[in-house]
């Protein structure tokens, strides 16, 4: 990617985070809490820099590299979450099958926007349909809306996630593919807080569809907010996630997120569901 676009570190400064690009450093500073990580790629998509055929080629190389890291360090990494070339729908559909067949990959990452369009755009629907058919979970990560002048990491990504969820629901994707599994970053963003607005403004069937989403716990702690997410999505739809190695240097917010879960007023068994069992069931069901 750097050969194609040497300016990437200037556009995306997080690329300079050592534990994101230096595996040796990351392994040396592994959190001492017995966690294993499911790893994905940062939101630099080949489709934004390459023509369709090259984007597909780079996506396959990236997926192979993730699988190799998982295989070589299985004591640390549970599995990888692959990338799809969303400017090459035919190849993206084929890559879904390739991910399913790879024992070291468990899902694919999608973004709130691809090529400036909502993930709910009809152009991308065949990929979502294929993921549903193949029972391949999708990880939904936010990106900025480049039309806006005030993008920021504090609030913008939460809006983008919430808006993408609304657009997916309104596209009737869950009505057509009720078994589609989408894991939303940042505990489902704004949706739990505005649950009653959803219930009163949207048609009943659409409001219900928001409960189809799964969410992670990557909000840097905040026990009351996690409880709100659990109350809204249901305990079985909340999966342990930390966004490591981002947010808290050098290795991520494992301690902060784990502490927030442990402070929840729920049983030890329910906490274990969040920490591990829901993840296993998410992949199996």
Automatic annotation (TrEMBL):
Keywords: Lyase. One of its GO terms (cellular component) is cytoplasm. SUPFAM superfamilies: Metallo-dependent hydrolases. GO terms for molecular function: carboxy-lyase activity; hydrolase activity. Gene3D superfamilies: Metal-dependent hydrolases. Residues 54-278 form the Amidohydrolase-related domain. Pfam families: Amidohydro_2. Signal peptide: none annotated. PANTHER family: 2-AMINO-3-CARBOXYLMUCONATE-6-SEMIALDEHYDE DECARBOXYLASE, ISO-OROTATE DECARBOXYLASE (EUROFUNG). This is Putative aminocarboxymuconate-semialdehyde decarboxylase.
């Amino acid at each position: 990617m750097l050969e194609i676009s040497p300016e990437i570190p200037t556009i995306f400064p997080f690329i300079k985070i050592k534990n994101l690009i230096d595996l040796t450093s990351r392994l040396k500073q592994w959190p001492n809490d017995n966690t294993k990580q499911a790893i994905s790629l940062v939101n630099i998509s080949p489709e934004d820099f390459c023509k369709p055929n090259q984007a597909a080629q780079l996506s396959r190389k990236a997926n192979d590299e993730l699988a190799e890291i998982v295989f070589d360090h299985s004591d640390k990494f549970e599995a990888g979450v692959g990338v799809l070339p969303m400017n090459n729908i035919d190849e993206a559909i084929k890559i879904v099958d390739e991910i399913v067949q790879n024992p070291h990959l468990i899902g694919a990452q999608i973004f709130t926007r691809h090529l400036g369009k909502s993930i709910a755009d009809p152009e991308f629907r065949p990929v979502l349909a294929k993921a549903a058919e193949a029972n391949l979970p999708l990880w939904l990560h936010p990106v900025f809306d480049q039309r806006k002048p005030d993008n920021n990491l504090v609030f913008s990504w939460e809006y983008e996630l919430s808006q993408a969820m609304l657009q997916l629901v309104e596209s009737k994707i869950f009505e057509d593919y009720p078994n589609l599994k989408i894991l939303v970053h940042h505990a489902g963003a704004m949706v739990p807080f505005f649950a009653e607005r959803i219930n009163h403004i949207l048609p009943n069937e659409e409001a219900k569809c928001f409960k189809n989403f799964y969410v992670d716990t990557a909000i840097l702690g905040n026990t009351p907010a996690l409880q709100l997410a659990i109350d809204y999505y249901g305990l079985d739809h909340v999966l342990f996630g930390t966004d490591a190695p981002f947010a808290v240097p050098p290795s991520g917010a494992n301690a902060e997120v784990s502490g927030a879960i442990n402070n929840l007023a729920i049983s030890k068994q329910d906490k274990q569901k969040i920490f591990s069992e829901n993840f296993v069931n998410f992949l199996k069901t």
